[in-house]
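re: ur question from earlier - yeah i can do the single chain one, its not a big deal. heres the input i used so u can compare w yours
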Amino acid sequence: MHISLLEDDSAIQELLLLVLQDEGYSVTVYPTAEECLKALRGAAQDQAPSPDLLIVDWRLPGPVSGIEVIQQVRTLPQYRSLPIILTTAATLTEPEDEEVQGLQVKLLEKPFAIDDVVRLIRDLTQQSQPQRSSEHQAS
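and the output i got, formated as C-alpha cells:
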C-alpha cells in the first residue's frame, strides 16, 4: 500500500512519515505541490508507482494550493476515485467548505490525533480497493 504525502510542515511531515511507515505503508513525501503533481502525472503514464492514497495540506507555500493539486489530480482518469485526505489548520468559511465538498476528499483538521489518521487511512484504502481494482481492469 503506497501513500503520497504533500505536507509543508516538517514536524507533521516527519510524524506522519514515521507513523505510516510503522503501520506498514510505503510513503513518498513531496516537498512542493509542483513535485507532487509531476510525480503523479508520471505515475498516471506508468512512469512511476501509483499511490493508493494521497494526503495533501491545503495551505502550501508557493503558487499552487492543496486544493489546486487535488483539482489537477482529479482530471487524470487514473485518479478520479483515488482516496484523498485534505489537511488544514484553518477554520473553513462557507465558500471554502463548498469547494472542499466538490473534490471528493476527506477533510482532516489540524491538530489531529495520529490514531484518527491511521483509522481514516485504513477505512479509505479498504473502501477503495475493490473500486480501484475494477478501474485498473477496465483500462
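Residues 132-139 have pLDDT under 50 and may be disordered. not sure if urs matches, ping me
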